[in-house]
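One such shown below:
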Amino acid sequence: MMKNVLRVLLIPAVVIAAVGGLVFAYLEMRKERDLEASAEAPVVPPSRVERDTNGGPVLKLDEPTEKLLGLQTAVPAPGSVNIELTAPARVLDGAGLATQLNEWRSAQSAHTAARADAERKKKLFGNGQNATASAVDQAESLMKQQELLVETTRDRIAATWGGTIAGRDDLADFARRLLGRELALVRVDLLATGTPAAAPRTVRLLRPNGDELTTASVLGPAPATDSTVAGQSLLCLVTTNATSLVPGSMLMARIATGVIERGTILPRTAVVRHAGFGWAYVQTAPHIFSRRVVSLEHPHPSGWLVNGDWAQPVVIAGAQSLLSDELKGSIQMKD
């Protein structure tokens, strides 16, 4: 009897102990999993990017961060630039000139031979030798045809390349140097609304991304105007850095207008590029910086000429690092 009572009491105790052990094991496992999850979670520093009333980015830094980013500021100085027109330009292929020149020289040789034959037959006929009047007429007719062919091929060169090139005394050597890319011909097509007041003597050539290549001399107006542009076209000659100009490549040309515009000069190191625009960081208060768009229409040897109020200091060193820090902070804000 006693054994049965003990058995009845022992079974619930065992069950309770087993359940308690399972609960304890679960709680311990849960605690370990929470610790592991918290250990794997990245430590995200607080974002330094805020938004002004217009929605623009504002960075609030501290002195150690400014030193870490290497920031330096200065108030930009006033300055001026000679306003330039921007126009598309294209490097011409000198092989076409060489082909036309060979046709012209071949016509000259044929004309020289025809003239000699006509003179010989005319002399024979005059001396009563083996030459008929009909043969003399045919020889003179052929000579005139060859003379017209010389004029036609010469006019074709002038129509294609302009009288300035067609009239060169060193045309053969000029064509050879074009083929060897010692020289380069560039056609600049101005917009109808962008004709300079005075005929320019030189143009600056740049790559599409704005990197400057070289300066070209203006030979004169191009023989024809591109109807899609409907403005004046200039034919320009490059004598330096010509090997970098591949025939058919598209460039940008800048032509001085003679007009001077005054404003503020932002140093080149103050301007960063992002999303297709130029930007500069303005220090609006101690340790507070705001990003402001910069017009890149008027380049200056030291940077860019801008209009408007630029009386506050701008970041002249570390601007790219500041942009990287801002973009990193913006990603954190979105997350």
Notes: Residues 2-40 form the longest helix (39 residues). The two ends are 71 Å apart (CA to CA).
